[in-house]
Specification:
heterotetramer, C: 627 residues, mainly alpha, two-stranded antiparallel ribbon, globular, D: 456 residues, 1% strand, NADH-quinone oxidoreductase subunit K (chain B), cell membrane (chain B), quinone (chain B), transmembrane helix (chain B), NAD (chain B)
Chain lengths: 479, 106, 627, 456
């Protein structure tokens, strides 16, 4: 039993969903995503039992490309994030009616397939293919099932597509160049390479372009807010919950170990960029009128911090980054789902048109409150663990990084509570806010439970990821 | 045969043919009447044919002359097709001025 | 055994919280109130057990529950530490906590969200206990932020009023500013000593030979900023007066007795660190003194009964920090305890007044309540005497200790402290006179409804009044039980003991005199001249400045809030758009090129062939040149 | 060799069918015949040899490309059934012409002698002239034919002149001799010029900048099926021939010449992509995209000795995608006077299958992974970087970004716009061709080694 099974299952699921027809599509998709989740948990056990669950096979002889899926702790963690969030996201969409549902859910599963592949691929080209592949489903999801004015949406989505593609194509060039040097794209061979400082710099930058656009790091973030706003909430969840993490994961897995010299030499620049993102994102978020846009900017701030952590090249930085990735994945999905719940009832995303929900639905309010608190990293939530570790690593590099990055806990509290106050509190709203349905409540509860559990007991995840991160660190410090 | 070539020298043949060829080219470039353009193209081809013959003599080798037949045949076929197209154009537009063929552009 | 008991102590309030959250509505108001109260009472009982244990065994109990976060150079476990300090704190947190819960059952009975209220209170107690008994800085930080959260929830309890929500938000964010400082301090300590556990940290620091005093100082200062945020010191004090938006019991519990003392707790917890950084200690002392004075001055002219109490709280906290800064931790703690008694009493009393007047908080519309509500009056009088520092009430001893310590270190600080306490005496009795003496100034129907509060409200008042009367006994000069008790925690306790000479008696006399002076002024102004503070509009001059709290809020608004929002608008409207314009610009350029190119493909065969020939010639000639 | 004869025979057969009133049978029979020929070719794949004293030289290269051409022709013939429904009487002629065109193509890739090369290219071109103008009553078609004819024959003149110069320099038409001689002594200046002129002639055929001007006009004017033929078969043939010409005739290609190729390739892709952005006529747009693809394929000429298989792969993926795209275009634009992008509005709703096919084809052209176009670009980039021309690759990358712009314009039109009206009928042949070709494309993407190892 190895990881390729997962991908096959997802792919089969995608087709099955499409064939199931509009009526059953959502159920089938949910079934398959749950199956995959279970499957990945089984794999996790196998992995912890020390079995080899990798799958490596020659694919193209000339150029020498292999179909290599390797699962170490890091990959598995991200894989679990993907396979855990996918069913949640699908389940969360049960409240909505989608035209042509079969294609919709098939695309979701296909995207999950591509993203899982990205996290598992251990061959540069394979990785790149999955990376690109994940772009197509989200493109169509955002384009066809998105909301708002069609023309505006089109521009936003096409911009997003071309923007990300542009970035990744330079990564492709970098990969080809690496292939010339290594004669193979297996990640282990790439780690073995010793490139000159200038080569590393160029490769690093080529990768950086791809990742900075995907993550996004300022100033490459302009696609984000609009797409988040225009995409259907499910798409937004996929984007912000998992797809962003592809970029961050790739930084840790590919960029840093392959070009460590550049990473070390220009560490401060990239940390500074990340932190600038934190502050910039938080400040822009302060005065957003659209709830989803506000959340988009908040996530810009958070990923900025994560990126900064990753670029510190310390164990804490990397570990904190990964923890924060997972935590942020859940929180952001929860928050966007909350936005969707409100939208289902008020049919608006404009903050000024909300308010007074608390007196209508205390249940929903408390869940939303918890999510807000988690996203501002209140201790005992999962995000605190990540944020603390990241900030600690920053403080080890330079105390000022920690102070500036730490402003996120002030500014974050500011814009989140401001948002909460205007969305939930105040005089009872005129519009009717039906109490949360069972499905909605269940989704929320699961997310909240995860956040609290790992907030108090992150040990399992830490134990899972630490060895592979240490391994990566040794690669980074190899010369 | 041979001595003539010696007296005159292959270069001159080449120059002659190049000049002929260029005449053809300029004809194609500057004349607007399709028929004349065809003729100019023919001039180009024939210039080449002449050169073929010259070279074949120069090399003492018959292949060149054989090739000339090929090229003449091909040229004939080409012109046949060309004229056919020209006729249908004349039917549809009533002119054979190539400068009027500007419907397809941009 | 101890572990389980400790867990009971910690988790019963949480249990109460959960019960009230999930079943509160079904339980009904009274019952949910009882549940909430019981859960705290249970923890109080357990605390008493531990108190007995510690006084006998003198050995702190350390409990490791599970591994929590791992950092590269050390592991953080989720552990509890029950030593003299934490148990002392637990005593009055849970003790006063249960009293206030009891009080709230009656006080909040008319509110339809009573169960939520109790849920929040229990949650607060839970987090407060976590804060106090956490065995390392990060567990403490959980409680630290948790109580901040609860205070946010409780200040904004009446969430339909956006002003209250603003106050709540303000409190949370101000606390967060402090929390950042605390975090930075934690980071530095972690880097320096590779541990955040209190006991190991203590041994590490006291054992260490060559300490990096610079970083140590930075850490101490950062931690102090955290304390400022939580304990409402300058410059982060402005949230506390606004926090009075919350229900009165909340003000009593959180914003007077317990949460705001967290900063003092943290500093005394880390006394071994602060002892090594005298500069920071000086800063603390000075900040404390200034805060005491400033807050007191503002308190002089406030007309909202709770505002007065709030500012007096800030000022008292200032005095405690003064003591901390002078290294007299046990003195500060002494004042914390006594202050907890009488300030809780005062708040609850004011609560009962407000309750009686149907929510009226303006003292100008009160008066003459003495006859109507004698118990409230008596208890509040005791408490006021205590806070004013009248012999032999609790406040007298603790405040006097502080002043003596101040005098020993620095005369100026002593002067400031004394002035502050004179003012305290003044505004407290201003409050008393305006509220209880003379005739009633409120509306008619209020007058009709005037009544003494039910026993559930008065009982806690009485208990607290008694405590604020006898509270001083725990640390009398010469034979101070408190100092004995805390001896294991602090290093220099013994040197801090001062001999009772005539000189000390003199200081006591001066302090006492000052207190009487304050009361006297108040008496002459509000009883003799029978004057009532005039309308807000008529207030002028210095008192206007004071009445408007030195315009500090406005200043902050102009200095921080407005600029950030302006910046946000600027980013949103200009930077964002211009960046994306840059991206779109590239697309536009290519499109324009394409447009120009269309003209080139003009459909003319002549031109096409011309281009053909041109290309041909170019290539041929290039080849020639290349030859 | 047998392939060539068989194909010619098949062409004659088509004409015979007409005489024997077997019009119905023509398309199926031709397809069967071509399949048989394909089988023959594949079976002979490894038997290389030379015939008629080196007039024709058969080797892996020629075999591989010949099979590709045959496959493409099968698709084109399949499409013609539906395309020529209206004027059945011409059916046999058009199909026969296509077959002869194929024979010319095969001759071009398996020539051993410049005479054969010249004949092949003329057969190809003349058949294309005819096809271009085949819609007699339509002025646009006439104009297209005329433009193509004039410029084509002009180009033939250039090629002929080039051949003549080569002959003058070498005294032989036999490529083997020529290449030996070219290696040996130092040569008269005519020789490189001759090579250059022949190359330029071929560059015209593959529509590389600045010899591309005819392409958009002719593509737009000609009947859609002819356009399909030009943009897939003809372009690929010309490319392969050019490659063979250069690789056979002088393996040690001069640096100056490489520079020229670099410049032309960069120019072609840039001009092609940028011009395509603003096109509303789909055929014209694909013409420009074809120009850019020619630019990509020119990169193969930078590493002549090694990139044969890469070129083959690129050619097959590109032409398969082209066939798929054009089959959809044929379906959509049947009975329309133009091929404007408006006709594609809402195809995603009215005919999701074909819309998906077209999307796939465009994605493949854009070089999005899993479609073989991506791997084609990849291997070419790989070769080019190995040859040391990183700059070209960077430009190519930037160009592929631009290209996404217009490919997605079409996709957007299909999925986001409302359909203007229903299209009736589901012509079997078109569906078959579309699905099979895109399927082949994807298969090539999943197993690139199938092709990449053929000539390795």
């Amino acid at each position: 039993m190895n990881v390729s099974l997962l991908l096959i299952l997802l792919l089969v699921g995608a087709f099955a969903t499409y064939l199931a027809g509009d009526k059953l599509a959502s159920k089938v998709a949910l079934f398959f995503s749950l199956a995959v989740l279970g499957c990945s948990i089984v794999l996790l056990n196998h992995f912890n039992a020390g079995e080899n669950i990798s799958f490596i096979n020659q694919w193209i002889s000339q150029p020498n490309i292999s179909f290599a899926l390797q699962a170490d702790g890091l990959s598995l963690a991200m894989l679990l994030l993907t396979t855990a969030l996918t069913p949640l996201i699908i389940f969360s969409s049960f409240g909505n009616e989608y035209k042509n549902a079969k294609s919709f859910y098939a695309l979701i599963l296909f995207m999950a397939f591509a993203m899982a592949g990205t996290f598992l691929a251990a061959d540069g080209l394979l990785y790149y293919i999955f990376w690109e592949l994940s772009l197509i489903p989200i493109y169509f999801i955002a384009l066809l099932w998105g909301n708002g004015d069609a023309e505006e949406r089109k521009t936003a989505v096409v911009k997003f597509f071309i923007y990300t593609l542009a970035g990744s194509l330079f990564m492709l060039v970098a990969f080809i160049y690496l292939y010339q040097r290594a004669g193979s794209l297996l990640i282990d061979d790439l780690y073995k390479l010793d490139l000159t400082a200038s080569e590393q710099l160029w490769i690093f930058l080529a990768f950086f372009l791809a990742y900075a656009i995907k993550i996004p790091i300022i100033p490459f973030h302009t696609w984000q807010a609009k797409v988040y706003q225009k995409a259907p909430t499910v798409g937004t969840m996929l984007l912000s919950g998992i797809m962003l993490k592809m970029g961050l994961y790739s930084v840790i897995r590919w960029q840093l170990p392959i070009a460590p010299l550049a990473a070390k030499q220009y560490m401060f620049v990239f940390i500074a960029l990340g932190i600038a993102g934190v502050i910039y994102g938080s400040i822009v978020a302060l005065r957003q009128k659209d709830l989803k846009k506000l959340l988009a900017y908040s996530s810009l701030a958070h990923v900025g911090l994560i990126a900064a952590g990753a670029y510190t090249l310390t164990l804490d930085g990397l570990r904190g980054a990964v923890l924060q990735m997972i935590a942020h994945g859940f929180v952001v999905v929860g928050l966007f789902f909350a936005a969707e719940i409100i939208f289902r009832r008020y049919d608006t995303r404009t903050i000024s048109e909300m308010g007074g929900i608390r007196s209508q639905s205390p249940k929903f309010t408390s869940m939303f409150m918890i999510l807000v608190l988690a996203s501002v990293a209140l201790p005992s939530t999962f995000n605190f663990v990540g944020e603390f570790t990241v900030l600690y690593s920053l403080s080890q590099i330079n105390i000022w990084f920690a102070i500036l990055g730490g402003t996120t806990i002030i500014l974050g509290a500011y814009y989140m509570l401001k948002m909460f106050q205007h969305v939930m509190l105040g005089e009872t709203n005129k519009k009717i806010f039906a109490d949360v349905t069972l499905n909605e409540g269940l989704t929320m509860v699961i997310i909240v439970a995860v956040l609290f559990f790992f907030g108090m007991y992150p040990k399992p995840i830490i134990d899972l990821i630490t060895p592979s991160l240490e391994n990566i660190l040794t690669q980074i410090n190899r010369n | 045969m041979n001595n003539i070539l010696n007296q005159i020298g292959i270069e001159n043949y080449i120059f002659l043919c190049v000049i002929l060829f260029c005449i053809g080219v300029f004809g194609v470039l500057y004349r607007r009447n399709a028929i004349i353009v065809f003729m100019s193209i023919e001039i180009m081809l024939n210039a080449v044919n002449l050169l073929f013959v010259a070279f074949s003599t120069y090399h003492q080798d018959a292949q060149g002359q054989v090739f000339v037949f090929f090229s003449m045949a091909v040229a004939a076929a080409e012109v046949a097709v060309g004229l056919a197209i020209l006729v249908s154009i004349f039917r549809n537009s009533g002119t054979i001025d190539v400068a009027n063929l500007k419907n397809l552009k941009g | 055994m101890d572990t389980n008991l400790a867990l009971v102590l910690l988790l019963t309030p949480l249990l109460g919280f959960l019960i009230n959250v999930f079943f509160g509505k079904k339980l009904g108001k009274t019952f949910s109130g009882i549940v909430g109260t019981l859960s705290v009472v249970v923890s109080f009982a357990v605390t008493l057990y531990f108190f007995g244990y510690i006084t006998v065994a003198k050995q702190p109990i350390q409990i490791i529950l599970f591994d929590w976060i791992s950092i590269s150079n050390f592991n953080l476990s989720f552990g509890l530490l029950l030593d003299q300090l934490s148990i002392l704190w637990l005593l009055f947190v849970t003790g006063i906590g249960s009293l206030i819960h009891l009080y709230s059952i009656s006080y909040m009975h008319d509110d339809e969200k009573m169960h939520t209220f109790f849920a929040y209170l229990n949650l607060f107690v839970f987090f407060m206990i976590t804060l106090v008994i956490g065995s390392n800085l990060l567990v403490m930080f959980i409680g630290w932020e948790g109580v901040g959260l609860c205070s946010y929830l409780l200040i904004g309890f009446w969430h339909k009023n956006q002003e209250y929500n603003d106050a709540a938000k303000k409190a949370f964010i101000m606390n967060r500013i402090g929390d950042l400082g605390l975090l930075i301090g934690i980071f530095i300590l972690g880097m320096l000593f590779s541990t955040l556990d209190f006991t190991t940290l203590k041994t590490a620091i006291s054992g260490a030979t060559n300490l990096n005093s610079y970083w140590l100082g930075v850490a101490a200062f950062a931690l102090f900023i955290g304390a400022c945020g939580k304990s409402a010191q300058i410059p982060l004090y402005t949230w506390l007066p606004d926090a009075m938006a919350g229900p009165t019991p909340v003000s009593a519990l959180i914003h007077a007795a317990t949460m705001v003392t967290a900063g003092i707790f943290m500093i005394s917890r880390l006394n071994f660190l602060f002892d090594l950084t005298p500069e920071v200690q000086n800063i603390i002392a000075i900040i404390g003194a200034i805060t005491a004075l400033v807050a007191a001055t503002i308190g002089l002219v406030q007309n909202d009964i709770k505002k007065v109490l709030a500012y007096s709280t800030v000022s008292q906290l200032g005095l405690m920090f003064l003591a901390l800064g002078l290294g007299a931790y046990q003195v500060a703690i002494f004042h914390v305890v006594t202050h907890a008694f009488f300030k809780a009493c005062l708040f609850l009393g004011s609560g009962s007044v407000i309750h009686a007047l149907g929510g009226e908080q303006d003292m100008r519309k009160m008066g003459g309540l003495k006859k109507a509500m004698p118990i409230t009056f008596m208890t509040m009088l005791v408490a006021s005497l205590a806070i004013a520092g009248i012999f032999p009430f609790a406040g007298f001893w603790s405040k006097d200790e502080i002043l003596i310590t101040a005098f020993e270190h620095n005369i100026v600080l002593w002067v400031i402290g004394s002035v502050a306490s004179i003012m305290t005496a003044f505004y407290m009795f201003r409050l008393m006179y305006l509220t209880f003496f003379k005739e009633f100034r409120g509306t008619e129907d209020q007058k009709h409804h005037l009544h003494e509060s039910p026993s559930l409200i008065t009982a806690p008042l009485i208990i607290l009044a008694v405590l604020s009367f006898i509270g001083g006994l725990i640390s009398l000069p010469k034979n101070s039980w408190l100092n004995e008790y805390l001896a294991p925690i602090f290093r220099k306790v013994t040197e801090e003991e001062h001999t009772l000479g005539t000189f000390e008696y003199g200081l006591m006399a001066i302090a006492l005199a000052g207190a009487f002076i304050g009361i006297g002024i108040a008496y002459s102004k509000y009883i003799k001249q029978n004057s009532v503070p005039e309308e807000d509009s008529k207030i002028t001059g210095i008192s206007k400045v004071l009445y408007n709290k030195y315009y500090v809020d406005e200043a902050y608004d102009v200095l921080f809030v407005k600029p950030i929002n302006a910046l946000s608008g600027f980013f949103r409207d200009y930077i964002e758009t211009s960046i994306s314009a840059l991206v779109f610009g590239l697309a536009k350029v290519t499109n324009e090129l394409s447009f120009q190119g269309k003209k080139l493909h003009n459909g003319s065969i002549g031109f096409y062939l011309f281009a053909f020939v041109l290309g041909l010639c170019a290539i041929i000639s290039y080849l020639f040149l290349a030859q | 060799m047998n392939t060539l004869i068989a194909i010619t025979g098949l062409g004659v057969l088509c004409l015979l069918f007409e005489i024997l009133n077997l019009r119905k049978a023509i398309v199926p029979m031709t397809i069967i015949g071509l399949l048989a020929i394909l089988g023959l070719t594949v079976s002979e794949f490894n038997t290389s040899g030379s015939f008629y004293n080196n007039m024709i030289v058969v080797n892996k290269f020629s075999m591989a490309f010949s099979s590709l051409f045959i496959v493409l022709t099968i698709f084109l013939v399949g499409l013609s059934h539906n395309f020529y429904e209206d004027h059945q009487s011409k059916l046999s002629d058009f199909i026969a012409i296509k077959i002869f065109l194929l024979s010319g193509a095969v001759a071009m890739v398996s020539f051993g002698n410049l005479a054969m090369f010249f004949l092949g290219i003329e057969v190809l071109s003349i058949s294309l002239y005819v096809l271009a103008a085949s819609n007699r009553m339509n002025l646009k078609s006439n104009e297209a034919g005329m433009k193509y004819f004039l410029m084509g024959s002009f180009a033939s003149g250039i090629i002929l002149f080039g051949i003549c110069l080569i002959y003058g320099a070498m005294g032989s038409f036999d490529v083997v001799e020529i290449s030996e001689l070219s290696r040996s002594a130092e040569l008269p200046i005519w020789f490189p010029i001759g090579i250059a002129m022949v190359t330029i002639g071929m560059l015209f055929k593959i529509a590389a900048v600045p010899f591309h001007f005819w392409a958009p006009d002719v593509y737009e004017g000609s009947p859609a099926l002819t356009t399909a033929t030009m943009s897939t078969l003809a372009k690929v043939v010309a490319m392969a021939t050019l490659y063979k010409l250069l690789s056979v005739m002088n393996a040690n290609i001069s640096y100056a010449f490489q520079i020229i190729i670099v410049v032309l390739s960069i120019a072609s892709m840039t001009v092609g992509n940028i011009m395509a952005l603003r096109q509303t006529n789909v055929k014209r747009m694909l013409a420009f995209s074809g120009i850019s693809h020619a630019g990509f394929m020119l990169m193969a000429l930078l590493s002549l000795s090694t990139s044969a298989s890469d070129l083959l792969y690129y050619a097959s993926t590109y032409s398969l995608a082209g066939i798929a795209a054009f089959s959809v275009i044929l379906y959509v634009c049947k009975n329309r006077d133009n091929e404007d992008i408006v006709n594609f509005h809402g195809l995603g709703k009215t005919n999701p299958l074909l819309a998906a096919v077209l999307t796939g084809a465009l994605l493949s052209m854009a070089g999005i992974p899993i479609f073989s176009g991506f791997f084609a670009k990849l291997v070419l980039f790989n070769q080019t970087i190995e040859a040391g021309y990183l700059v070209v690759v960077i430009v190519a990358v930037i160009n592929s970004i631009i290209s996404v712009g217009y490919y997605f314009k079409l996709i957007l039109a299909m999925y986001t716009k409302e359909p203007n009206e229903e299209r009736a009928g589901t012509p079997f042949f078109i569906y078959a061709v579309a699905v099979v070709s895109i399927a082949l494309n994807v298969v090539l993407g999943l197993f690139p080694s199938l092709v990449l190892d053929l000539l390795g």
